[in-house]
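Changelog-adjacent note: as of this version, every example in the card shows the full chain rather than a window. The one below runs 209 residues end to end.
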Amino acid sequence: MGRLFVMDHPLIQHKLTFLRDEQTGPKEFRELLNEIGMLMAYEVTRDLPLRQVEIRTPVKEAKAYVLDGKKLGVVPILRAGLGMVDGVLRLVPHARVGHIGLYRDPKTLEPVEYYCKLPADAQERVLIVVDPMLATGGSASAAIRFIKERGCKSIRMMNLIAAPEGIERVQKEHPDVDIYVAGVDEKLNDHGYIVPGLGDAGDRLFGTK
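Full-length structure tokens:
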């Protein structure tokens, strides 16, 4: 089963408090989401492999380390996931960015892919799928499935807040995918919102409600 990492770093928890606050406007929400995304990316990339290289400092030759093997890719789930991309790119500026868009079929209630554009070499990259909320897990699980169908195997999920129901679903349907979150909340309400959560991340990010 995929591992669950809950990031309790003081800076992440501090910023997450203001992100949750209903008084926080779109500008501040975007800035906080960007900052938390960068802090979380630091932990998500902690186990990336390194290789030794030789360089010359202004003083002498030295042995140092650079990232080895697979490069990174960031795949936001549209639209709210867009708010986390810049934070990751500030930390790993050479990462490639893909996009995946889903909507829920009104009859079957199943997620339907309407857009998916991944880096040409996505199969060779460690892909970080980002979305602020992991609620029912339906969209996240579907997004991971669609990405896997394109031959990608090294996938990690990064969310700000998760409900137990969403974590359980992703772990059940994708036991090879690790999940990184800043907080695990109580439950989902009757409308599928995380409680206490932070509301609709997309609306708060783009000021559409």
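Structural remarks: The mean pLDDT is 93.
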